[in-house]
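Query structure, 408 tokens:
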């Protein structure tokens, strides 16, 4: 048998082998394809409750759950009156028109102190008693001059009677008259000295009546008020230059404030203003502007103002710290939002405005004056829009994250 004969197979056997070979190849290809598909991660579709594009073109999309979780709150802004006011640091002082530094008019030793700090006194009430040798000498001099005046008066009257009967000359009568006038002048001078030393009329009348000298002198209140300072003690010697007591009528007080140069335009004479005191943070006291300085302090560039505030209950004390609140002209129709709604973005200020479908739009705005936790929006916001006032930082964070995430 030849080689060609050995290689030949029957026709039907060659066809069956070919079919089995093709089938095996197809099966192998299918298995390889399936294995390769198992090695790759399947592409997960976006969750049905999250938008595929969460932040685009300055608009942030959030779900209902995210809004609740972030605590986002919005308010509808409307035009309304907005009154600005300025506050200036101040200190409370006693009304200097009703303040007295009480001194003694004569040198002496303190025998008794009759009042203490905080006591209300009446006009003319005794504050302290002094023992003064100078007063005793002044009273003795007054008694002497009064006696000489009386003697000169009698001598003149006798001389006038004698001259009428031509018993003495006119020259003698005139000499007696001159002596009487000199004695009267000396008596008036001694009386005036007693009054300068603070001796009251009742004491002078007693001196004339009893002819007895007393060296004790009282320091008296010049008007009704409260003793706010005592500067003497029993037994010490006080001079006429010593401020023994300070008495003040605190039925109204002065509130003195410093106004910066930029706010001078808000100050007007006789304007009614309000005073807030640190000791009474929830109280508001009204007063009238009674003094505006004509010059500014060169060092601080501030202007001093004074407000007179009624104080019938004496709750305002000198040296308390306070704030003077001056209202500016109200603006009738402005849009104002809470300061918490404003965010910093780049070099400007932004707000988030709610749009339908829980979309929050980034809106650049221009702001005006601030007052009591609110700020005026001059540009970038319209009447009736919903502004995020709580949770704006969470929305901004979502926007910032989108900016730094790489694009897939």
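Result returned for the query:
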């Amino acid at each position: 048998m030849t080689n060609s004969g050995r290689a030949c197979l029957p026709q039907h056997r060659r066809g069956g082998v070919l079919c089995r070979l093709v089938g095996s190849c197809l099966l192998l290809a299918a298995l390889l394809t399936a294995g390769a598909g198992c090695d790759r991660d399947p592409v997960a579709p976006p969750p049905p409750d999250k938008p595929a594009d969460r932040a685009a073109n300055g608009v942030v999309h959030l779900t209902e759950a995210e809004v609740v979780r972030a605590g986002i709150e919005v308010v509808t802004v409307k035009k309304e009156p907005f009154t600005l006011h300025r506050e200036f640091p101040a200190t409370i002082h006693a009304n200097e028109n009703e303040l007295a530094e009480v001194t003694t008019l004569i040198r002496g030793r303190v025998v008794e102190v009759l009042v203490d700090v905080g006591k209300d006194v009446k006009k003319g009430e005794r504050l302290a008693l002094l023992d003064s040798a100078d007063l005793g000498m002044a009273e003795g001099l007054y008694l002497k001059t009064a006696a000489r005046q009386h003697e000169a008066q009698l001598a003149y009257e006798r001389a006038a009677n004698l001259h009428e009967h031509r018993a003495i000359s006119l020259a003698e009568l005139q000499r007696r008259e001159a002596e009487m006038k000199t004695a009267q002048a000396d008596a008036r001078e001694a009386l005036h000295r007693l009054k300068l030393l603070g001796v009251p009329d009742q004491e002078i009348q007693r001196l004339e009546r009893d002819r007895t000298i007393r060296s004790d002198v009282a320091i008296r209140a010049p008007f009704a008020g409260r003793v706010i300072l005592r500067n003497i003690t029993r037994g010490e010697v006080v001079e006429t230059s010593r401020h023994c007591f300070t008495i003040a009528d605190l039925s109204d007080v002065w509130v003195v404030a410093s106004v910066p140069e930029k706010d001078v335009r808000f100050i007007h004479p006789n304007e009614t203003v309000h005073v807030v005191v640190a000791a009474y943070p929830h109280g508001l006291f009204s007063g009238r502007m009674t003094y505006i300085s004509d010059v500014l302090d060169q060092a601080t560039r501030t202007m001093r103002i004074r407000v007179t505030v009624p104080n019938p209950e004496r709750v305002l004390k000198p040296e308390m710290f306070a704030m003077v609140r001056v209202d500016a002209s109200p603006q009738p129709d402005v849009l104002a939002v809470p300061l918490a709604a404003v965010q910093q973005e780049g070099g400007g200020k932004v707000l988030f405005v709610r749009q339908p479908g829980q979309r929050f739009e980034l809106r650049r705005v221009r702001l005006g004056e601030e007052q009591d936790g609110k700020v005026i929006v001059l540009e970038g916001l319209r009447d009736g829009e919903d502004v995020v006032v709580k949770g704006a930082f969470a929305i901004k964070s979502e926007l910032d994250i989108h900016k730094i995430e790489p694009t897939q």
